[in-house]
Amino acid sequence: MINGEEAPKVSDHQPAIPKKLLPLDIGVDPELIKNPYSGEKVWLQPNAVAVYDLIKGAEITADPNNGDHPNWQLVRDGLDWFREHYAKEYMVLLD
Q1: CA distance linking residue 43 with residue 58, whole number of Å
Q2: What is the pTM of this model?
Q3: Which terminus of the chain has fewer Cβ atoms in its 10 Å neighbourhood, N or C?
Q4: Is residue 21 a contact partner of residue 51, using CB atoms and an 8 Å limit?
Q5: What is the DSSP string of 9-78?
Q6: What confidence tens digit (pLDDT) does each residue in 26-79 have?
Q7: Which residues neighbour 4 within 8 Å (Cβ) at sequence distance 6 or greater?
Q8: Nearest Cα to 41, choosing from 12, 72, 2, 80?
Q9: Is 19 exposed, middle or buried (0-12, 13-18, 19+ CB in 10 A)?
């Protein structure tokens, strides 16, 4: 049980994170992540949690009036990685 919920069988596969998204703090255990808008939840492997956190943090800190702000590129690169490696989870959390 993690975060008060029973963890389902989560794949051990953790795709490599591209260097352009590093360095990241990567945890050890899968985590249950909740979409703040829909309330839907999915379990993510530690590498996916790290990229998800990077995306959300970059969204918050990027200048909304400057599409060339470097954090917007982090958001785009993170979303591309998520779509490629965790398509179902991307649809729940980030689409």
Answers
A1: 21
A2: 0.87
A3: N
A4: yes
A5: P-----PPPPGGG------SS-EEEE-TTT--EEEE-HHHHHHHHHHHHHHHHS-TT-TT-HHHHHHHHH
A6: 999 999 999 999 999 999 999 999 999 999 999 999 999 998 999 999 999 999
A7: none
A8: 2
A9: exposed
Q: Residue 62 is encoded by which pair of tokens?
A: 């990027």
List all residues 6 or more positions away from 86 whose beta carbon is below 8 Å from its beta carbon.
Answer: 44, 48
Q: Which amino acid is it at 76?
A: R
Contact (Cβ atoms closer than 8 angstroms) between residue 77 and residue 21: yes
The dihedral sign for the CA sequence 56, 62, 67, 70: negative
**Percent of the chain at pLDDT exceeding 90:** 83
Q: Residue 47: how many CA atoms within 13 Å on its side-chain side?
A: 15
Cβ partners under 8 Å of residue 1, min gap 6: 7
